[in-house]
Write a structure and sequence with these properties.
Length: 250
């Protein structure tokens, strides 16, 4: 069984049917990309996986590490090792880089304590230490005393990813990490994602920038109007001119 599986998932915003029979799998240790145009259902897929409401999953199952997490709260899902970096990044702009990282660890420890007290999870903090984060993101070390709101877009994206890695993370969900970034900064973020993957963290990457995503992905899915229309290796997608032109515009 894959590390993560979506099995025939239908998700709704109110009465609006967004995801339609979505089935996909993410294998342990890989970088998997979910690609599609704006409004295709990419972010809804990530929100459904992470337990965010809305959307509401009304049919199908979401299985993580062989456990059905479909109806779990975001806190319980996070405690099991799944972390989401949203498109908005959501760093604390008035806190320094170091303070943002410290808050991520405090939040993780609190989540684990609550989970243990409820008998729901048995986990300890196994995320990266601050020093390990700085080893992965040397630029954050250089700016650790700088307020997050004064960082560049790429540096804020690195900080958002680093905060997720401070938690107990086996699967990292990245929502549009290249959004609004210049090509050179995209390359820097790509390098960071590759290092994270090489360290053993599985990654599901949602992107509109299909060319950049294919450069880093092992496998790709393409979603259109809430349905999966392509599954295969990045090499297969590069060679499929019809799919790229029809669904990705590249």
């Amino acid at each position: 069984m894959s590390l993560l599986e979506l099995q025939g998932v239908d998700a709704f915003y109110g009465e609006s049917h967004i995801l339609r029979d979505v089935t996909l799998g993410v294998e342990e240790g890989e970088v998997c990309s979910l690609l599609g145009r704006n409004g295709a259902g990419k972010t809804t897929t990530l929100r459904s996986i992470s337990g965010a409401r809305p959307p509401e999953v009304r049919d199908g199952r979401i299985v993580f590490k062989e456990e059905d997490i479909t109806a779990m709260s975001p806190e319980d899902i996070s405690a099991r090792g799944l972390s989401l970096v949203p498109e908005e990044r959501r760093v604390f702009p008035n806190l320094t880089v170091a303070e943002n990282l410290h808050l991520a660890e405090v939040s993780e420890n609190r989540s684990n304590t609550v989970g243990r007290s409820l008998g729901q999870v048995q986990v300890e903090h196994v995320g990266m230490t601050t020093e390990e984060v700085y080893d992965e993101f040397e630029r954050l070390r250089e700016r650790k005393s700088q307020k997050a709101g004064t960082l560049s877009g790429g540096e804020q994206q690195m900080l958002a990813i680093a905060r997720a890695l401070k938690q107990n993370t086996d699967l990292l969900l990245l929502d549009e990490p290249y959004e609004g970034l210049a090509p050179q900064i995209i390359a820097d973020v790509e390098d960071a994602i590759r290092r994270i993957s090489d360290s053993g963290t599985t990654i599901l990457l949602v992107e509109q920038n299909a060319i950049a995503a294919m450069d880093i992905a092992d496998r790709c899915y393409v979603i259109d109007q809430g349905s999966i229309v392509f599954e295969g290796t990045a090499e297969k997608l590069r060679a499929d001119d019809e799919t790229r032109d029809r669904y990705l515009g590249v």
